[in-house]
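name: query_chain
kind: protein
chains: 1
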Amino acid sequence: MKIYIVSGLGADFKVLERIEFPKHYELIFIDWLIPEKNEPFDAYVKRMADKVDDSEPFCLLGYSFGGIIVQEINLLKPAEKVVILGSIKSDKEKSRFIRTGEVTKIPRILPVGLFNDKAANVYAVIRKLFDPKNPKLLQYFKVRDPYYLKWSVEKVSEWKFEENPNVIQILGDKDIVFPIRYSNPDYVIKGGTHLFPATKSKEVSKILNEVFCEKQ
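structure:
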């Protein structure tokens, strides 16, 4: 069976490369697409979903913003299992910081130039303060198209979604992007920051092997 995987906002799959998935699964990585000008979120999700072959059973896995995307894809093409890492199951799990962006619409009015490469680098340096075990944080964030980054921040803040109880959620207890206090995850990674798939890969690998190897 295939597992279709979507990584985090601006991240390539390097952040997930240390995870050992069950060997009898085929991994299919779905690369981020650059949104078209003023492209609606549902249209973007459909383009991402086009890469999923639903003629046979499959699973979905998403990290961070990718967790949001795979849950949306699941509405179009239902999967056998959906697993999200460092992500949220519904808009009710948004942090106060993200809710502020939703209410004030600030992300929408921010200039695209704020998301240029220089700004992205500054943002990454700040993030290091919260994840000192990853001094080379920038190696994980490769998709730096300013329009894509601005669009993604807007969509995270605006996201509305009813929780699907069948979605399996794995969160780190030190995550500052999606704080665990707003969620009730199925699995908790002790000491895990938002980058726990990279820093706690052994724990994540063990959980994923349990999840994907258990009978439906």
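note: The first helix runs from residue 41 to 49.
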